[in-house]
Each structure stands twice: as C-alpha cells, then as structure tokens.
Design goal:
Layout lengths: L6 H14 L9 H12 L16 H10 L1 H18 L5 E6 L4 E6 L1 H9 L10 H4 L3 H8 L3 E4 L11 E9 L5 E10 L7 H20 L4 E6 L11 E5 L5 E4 L1 H6 L20 H10 L5 E4 L5 E8 L21 H5 L4 H13 L6 E4 L6 H10 L8 E5 L5 H9 L17 H4 L4 E5 L6 H13 L1 E2 L8 E2 L3 E6 L3 H6 L5 H7 L2 E4 L9 H12 L6 E2 L1 H9 L5 H15 L6 E2 L6 H9 L20 H6 L1 E3 L5 E3 L3 H15 L4 H8 L3 H11 L6
Parallel strand pairs: 11-16, 11-17, 12-13, 13-16, 18-19
Antiparallel strand pairs: 1-2, 1-5, 3-4, 4-5, 6-7, 6-10, 7-8, 9-10, 14-15, 20-21
Helix pairs in contact: 3-19, 4-8, 24-25, 25-26
C-alpha cells in the first residue's frame, strides 16, 4: 500500500500545477500527476463544477445498460459478494462501463446521501474529462488499477472520498468497464486495491468461461491445485492452434501482449502440440495434464472443448439475435435463459410433443405459449386458452369436454362442443394445470391417450387433433410426488419442460423495459429517469412481468402532456413504499434513498423517510408538505424563475405550474 502525500504537500502541488501548468517533480504518484495534467488540459478547475449534461438521460441509460447486459449479469453477484467483505466501511461498490458511465451501484444508505451530492449514482459519467482525477476515470485512461485518496482527486468537491478502481478486460484484452470501491477518506484500507483486483479477475474469468465456449479453452497453472482457482490462467485457442484470447494470468504465464493475440500459435509457447493435448483430453476428459513451456518451466493444463456459439461481451447496440424472425423472436429482448427456452420449443413445434411451461406467476407463460403457437405450423389455426384455476370446479369439465343438449341444469339448449374441440387443428393451452381437480385430470389423461373427446351427457366420441401446451407456477414434479397431481398425467404433458426466469433474475431488464414502454406508448418515446431505473433493476418484483408492466402503464398515464420521462413523481404510493422496503440487494445495502419529490434537495429527500417501530424506513405520510417545501426551495434558489425551478426539480414547467395551482396560496412564484 502506497502512502499518499500529506494534505499540505497536495495543496502545494495543486498550486504549482495551476501556476506553472505542471506538477512539481517527486511530489505526487506519477499516475496521479499525469491525471492532474490531463484534467487541467481538459479545462477542469479544482473548484469547478461538473456540467449537468454529463448525467445520462433515462433513454441513454437504458441503451447503455442494454449494451452492457453481459457485463452486468456477471458482475452483479461478484459485486454483492464484494460488498459483504467491505460492509463495515459503509462505502459503495460501483460498476462503470468502458466510457465511465456508472451502470450498477451497491452501498450503505448512510453514505449514499453524500455520494449522491457528487453524482455517484447510475447514469453519471466519471471519465477524467468530465470529473478530473478520480479512480474510475483514471483507471480507464491508465488501463490499470489505481487508488485515489482524498485531495488527490482533482475536483475539491470529491476530496472527502477514497476510491479504488480496477479495469475489467475481455479475453482479447479490450476494456469492458471498471470495478470500484468508494467511501469516506477516513475508511481507507491497505488491502482494498487487492480486494477489488481479485473481484475484477473473478468477473473476467466468468465472462470468458460463459461467453467464449466455441473456442478450445486451456486452464493453466504452475500447480495442480491452482486449476479452477481465481489465480488460474485461461487461454482461448482456435481449432488450428492460434492463441486468440487469454485472461491476465495466462498473459503472464505465456508472456503475451495484446498484439500477440491472434498472431501467436500454441507451439510457440508449449512443447506439446495441440493435437496431443486434444488426444489426452479425449482419453481422460476433465483431467489436468502436465506440459512444458519452451523455456523449460512446467505447467498443468486442463483442456475444455465444447462447441456452442460464442456470445460477444463487448458493448453492442443490441444483443445477438436468434436466426428466426418469428413471434418468439419478437418477445426476445436478450435474456439467455429465456432465449434458450424459446430455442428448445422451436425444435418441437412441428412434432407431436407436448410442452410444459414452468415459472412463477406473472413471468409471461401465456404470452410465451401464444408466441410458440404463432411460431409453429399451426399458427393459422385456433389458439384456445383456458385457465384451470379461474373456472369453477363444477363447470370446468363441461368447459373442456363440451356437453349434449340438456346434459345438466342450466345447460344451453344447443349444447357445447367444448374447448378441446374448439382447438381442433390448432393449439390448446391449459394454464395453471396444476390447479385442475384430480378427478378431471383422469378424464384429460384419457383424451390425451385416445385422442378422442366424449361430451358430457353421452354421445359418440369425437376425434381431436391439437398441439398441447400446459403451464403452471407449481413445481409439478413435486406436486406429483406429493400426490396432489397425477403422476401419469404429469409424464403425459411433460414432453418438453421449459422454465421461464423470474423478472428479478433476467439479464435483459433494460431492453425489456424499452420494449414494454414502446408497447405501452406507441408513437411516443418514453424513458425512465436513471435513478428510478436503477431502483427498478434492483427491486424484487414479486408479481414479475405482470406487476412491472402494470407499474409502467400507470406511470405512463401519470405523465403530463409534454413529459416523456418517468420519474418518482409518476409512481403510485404503494410502489414507492415497496421500492423503499424491498431492495434486491444484500441485507443492509441500499441503492439510494427513494426521493419524496424528484430532484428535491438531499435534506428534503432524507426527510422523506422515517423509522417505524420495526426499524424499517418508510415514506412520510405528508408527501404534499414535502412537495411544497421542495418547490419553495427550488423557487428561492431560482429567484422566482419558474423555468429554472422546474429544471432543478427535474419536471416540466407545466407540471410545476400544476403543482403550484394545487398548492394554492402556500407558494408564490
């Protein structure tokens, strides 16, 4: 751990820089000195402010998070684990993309109010050109891990921070983003740089293993026990033996530079040829083998060779798309688990194989089923859906199988063909089949076995032909084992089972939000404010897509005539309270306080929470009073200029006029 200069030495060095345009020799760490010079050349001044334009709009943040969804997906679990290690410091764990835009943060609520004052929140840009010397921006430029402590920050407003950042690199040594720990300068710890470095390596290794599976992969280490550890090297090889990618450890083992990738073959580093390694792998798969480098040093090598496609983790405008442009493709917003389920279903749509869709309530099982029907050979025929949990038990049999005239009291005079026959040549979708009564399950099983339906009240059996898709939020295998669902029916409907992920586990949350907003407001481009979107991403959403779509629909309805950005002011009170209580982050971690009024000063936002007897933080009941207070302060700060006050509050001028009218004489513009 290096010892930073004293506050006096830093003050003198800063004055020397401003007076002479350069730092005094030997007074600063050389990387800090270079960063100070770059900051001054970019037009920054120590006492200057950051332009408001350096914070992404809601639409821009949506695009940024969508283009980095692989990085986010593999970073979030590592960040949660990292935060557990530094919880006592009451700081933040931050992920920024390759341009310095913050895309994910975890932190203690005690520190977040101070962090928000210097824009340590999602959507803010911390590149050196915007915010001077800081760990995130300087790590991006220097392409190495850095620690910036206290007054080493170029901007005086950031001097209360101590920040440590390490770049995250792809297998091709290209910059993907930066992982950072920031906190109060008094909480500086000697091992933070090493801790962030290890977490960064974990993310890099996860990305390589997950997204580059079409290459031959070598896991290497000088010790046998090192294979599979965070210290192992990972090398990517083409089929003809070219080294096309590597993690940092492998770059060191094989003495590679970035320019060597794609230009060096394996036989230029190891004595054993690739063909021999593959032969050993075939004879003893999963077993490391010992080899020698050309310099005589020994290495243990584990070969991994699979053939799925390789998904790029470099930022892309959109995620890689499936080859088919069908109805399932139109629902695909990039989540790999959802896409895998769709790909599996596509393969059986033209075969007599029933599909069982499992997943929590609200994940979109019926939407998936309908898209499956519309993607298959029966798409021009009927899609008949029946919710087995919604039809009364005494009517569901007649609903499914039909009935003859006069079959029971209240029956229609002409009878009914039933939903099974309505699905003739098309698709029958039985939603929540786990709630079907056991007695009725036996009749359904007979129909599926015999492909004939006999209506209630007698009559001749009628042949039926339909594709069958079932869905349930119950785990039907467990239900069958417990005797609550027939085993024989379970195995009859379980031709292909796919599991749709809950919203909280999807990696395409941002792209999904964009699609939902486009569907909810056609012809009117609506976005979500960055701080609101960040909280949405971290919310648990127990009702999944159904709940989220309803929340967005309500928020869109609350937008004013000239508004196009959903902020806290557009959310219903119950959702605000839920966002305050149930964060999808580790215990004791917060993603920033939920403001009572969008854009209101920090002291007003913090006043918008009070502690209940159970210790939970809740919104104050008197939101109207807080709103008036925030508006009053914004008008005072703007000398009564309504347009400026509206910009300070983050709302349109029309919305501010409406709030002034609602407040009456309590506030005067």
């Amino acid at each position: 751990m290096r010892t930073p200069p004293t506050a006096v030495a830093l003050r003198q060095a800063r004055l020397h820089l401003l007076e002479h345009g350069d730092c005094p020799p030997g007074g600063l760490d050389e990387r800090v000195a270079r960063s100070w010079r770059r900051s001054l050349a970019a037009g920054s001044l120590p006492a200057g402010r950051v332009p408001e334009s350096e914070h992404s709009s809601g639409a821009e943040l949506l695009h940024t998070m969508a283009s980095n969804h692989e990085l986010l997906a593999h970073s979030r679990p590592v960040m949660a684990h990292l935060f557990e290690q530094v919880r006592h410091t009451q700081g933040m764990v931050i992920l920024a993309d390759q341009r310095g835009t913050l895309v994910h943060t975890l932190g203690h609520a005690d520190f977040l109010s101070r962090a928000e004052r210097v824009a340590l929140s999602c959507g803010a840009n911390w590149h050196e050109q915007q915010r001077g010397t800081n760990a995130i921006g300087t790590a991006l430029v220097e392409a190495s891990g850095v620690e910036i402590h206290g007054a080493e920050h170029f901007l005086e407003r950031n001097e209360f921070l101590t920040c440590t950042a390490v770049p995250i690199l792809s297998a091709q040594a290209e910059l993907l983003g930066v992982l950072d720990i920031s906190g109060d300068q008094r909480s500086r710890h000697p091992h933070t740089l090493g801790l962030v470095g290890m977490a960064s390596r974990m993310i890099e290794n996860r990305l390589i293993i997950s997204t580059c599976q079409r290459h031959i992969r070598l896991h290497v280490h000088a010790q046998l026990e090192g294979i599979g550890s965070i210290a192992e090297g990972i090398v990517l090889l083409s089929e003809d033996g070219w080294l096309v990618g590597a993690n940092r450890a492998a770059m060191a083992w094989f003495k590679l530079s970035r320019a060597d990738l794609g230009a060096v073959q394996l036989n230029q580093r190891l004595e054993v040829p690739l063909a021999e390694l593959l032969s050993r792998h075939k004879r003893r798969p999963g077993q490391p083998t010992q080899v020698r480098q050309l310099d005589g040093s020994g290495l243990y090598v584990l070969v991994q060779h699979t053939l799925p496609t390789c998904v790029s983790v470099l930022p892309q405008p959109v995620s890689s798309a499936p080859p088919l442009r069908d109805a399932l493709h139109s629902l695909d917003t990039g989540d790999l688990r959802w896409r895998s389920a769709a790909d599996k279903v596509r393969r059986v749509l033209d075969k007599p194989i029933p599909v069982l869709i499992q997943g929590e309530s609200g994940v979109g099982k019926e939407l998936f089923a309908r898209a499956s029907h519309d993607s298959g050979p029966r798409k021009n025929k009927a899609f008949v859906a029946i919710n087995c949990a919604a039809v009364p038990e005494n009517l569901i049999e007649a609903e499914l199988f039909g009935y003859t005239p006069g079959a029971f009291t209240g029956a229609r005079r002409e009878g009914s063909v039933g939903r099974l026959r309505e699905a003739q040549s098309g698709t029958l979708f039985l939603d929540e089949i786990g709630d079907m009564p056991l007695g009725l399950q036996a009749r359904l099983l007979r129909v599926l076995q015999e492909r004939q339906v006999t209506p209630l009240g007698g009559g001749q059996p009628v042949a039926v032909d339909f594709a069958l898709i079932c869905a349930s939020h119950h785990k039907l295998r467990e239900e069958a084992a417990a005797g609550r669902f027939r085993n024989d029916l379970y195995y009859r409907i379980n031709g292909l089972t796919v599991l749709l992920p809950p919203l909280r586990e999807r990696t395409d949350f941002v792209m999904l939000t964009e699609r939902l907003l486009a569907d909810l407001s056609p012809g009117h481009r609506v976005s979500v404010a960055p701080d609101v979107l960040a909280r949405f991403c971290q919310h648990n959403w127990p009702g999944n897509l159904r709940q989220y779509a309803n929340a967005l629909r309500t928020a869109c309805a609350m937008l004013g005539t000239h508004e196009d950005c959903i902020s806290w002011d557009h959310l219903p009170d119950d959702l605000l309270e839920d966002l305050q209580h149930t964060l999808h982050v580790p215990d004791g971690v917060a993603a920033g306080p939920v403001p009572a009024v969008p854009g209101s000063p920090a002291r007003v936002q913090n006043a918008a929470a009070s502690t209940t007897e159970s210790g939970n933080v809740t919104l104050l009941h008197n939101l109207q009073a807080l709103s008036r207070q925030a508006i009053h302060q914004a008008l005072d700060a703007s000398s009564g200029n309504v347009s400026q006050a509206a910009r300070r509050l983050g709302i349109s001028r029309q919305t501010l006029y409406r709030k002034l009218a609602e407040a009456g004489a309590g506030i005067r513009a």
